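This week, study the protein below.
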Amino acid sequence: MIDAATFDTLLSPLGQRILADATALAPTDSTLLSCVNRLRKSYPTDLAAAAIETVILRAKAAAKFTRADRMYFTREALEVASGEVVSRYRAERFKRFETVADLGCGIGGDSIGLTAAGVKVIAVDRDDARVRMTAANLDAHDAGTQARVQQSDLLTDPLPDTPAAFADPGRRADGRRFLSVRDYLPPPAELLTRLPPGHPVGFKLAPGVPLDELATFGGEAEFISVGGELKECVLWLGGLRTAERRATLLNHAGPPHSLASDSRPIYLEPQPIAAFLYDPDPAVTRSGLTRLLAEQLDATLVDAVVQLLTRDTHQPTPFATAYRVDAVVPADEKKVIAAVRSLDVGRVTPVNRGWPGELPPTRRWKLSGSGHRFVLFTRELGKPVVVIGDRV
């Protein structure tokens, strides 16, 4: 952990020379100690360690931030920080407000996204080092003049007087991760008592947050995935709410795709797997919108528990991965191997979708064909089956 004094030194001309020397060593997690030992021959140990750590974290952050090589991080803050793709998407909801409070700003990722949307920001965090990092990271994005950064406790100090707010409560402490919003630091319910009733606010939450807890807020639960990986949940309250549930799919190129509903879809009776199988994006399944997607696709569920859809013809959709079904085989490994071999398949990619128990080791199947197939271990009408197919 880099303290505030050490961080201030890193920003000085001396600190920048140390960072340049640390960068030249190209450190990694496995070479961290050896690189620190080399650097400490010329500089104080605490500064050498901080510089090496910063260079390592900048390399890790490159997947989230385009200007990571000029930014500053702590490991924990980087792990929980939203990448630019998500923060800039979220910032679109705030564009109608002149100023937004970023409560629990961490290292400033969301403040950067808000300023990129043309919004002025008041960034708040109780950790002195993170406040300094937010200011430096805003400067790295040429956004320092659009933001004010201050150290404050969200539950005891006066909150910024802004027309809207975004809050990112702490979800980790002492090596533990919290799923329940009651354990967050601070809990959203407590923070809301310090804001005006109906105040427009968005809370960043863990994607595994219990859904029954979200229902008590009466807001919109938006689950966001990037490139097919579920990243976070956002609870939108007040004037920022647009629906009851929303699934949003983002990628690094192209527009976002959203599926939203204020009502519960009708019950769908599961049907046998047809010619095409659809595996919904995790944002869709986590938001409980699989049946809505089924209605839009004119598809049906294949099981009452496993959220896979099926239909007779292919209907393109950004909300699910589609497979052309070659075979549906009972849960008998010998029969599955025979079916795969009959398709001249030499390589398979196993996919677990509700399979009871461990998957059989496909490497022992001794396949010699020229083709490739996906093998989905799943359930159909309550029974384990294996689906052999290829992505459309």
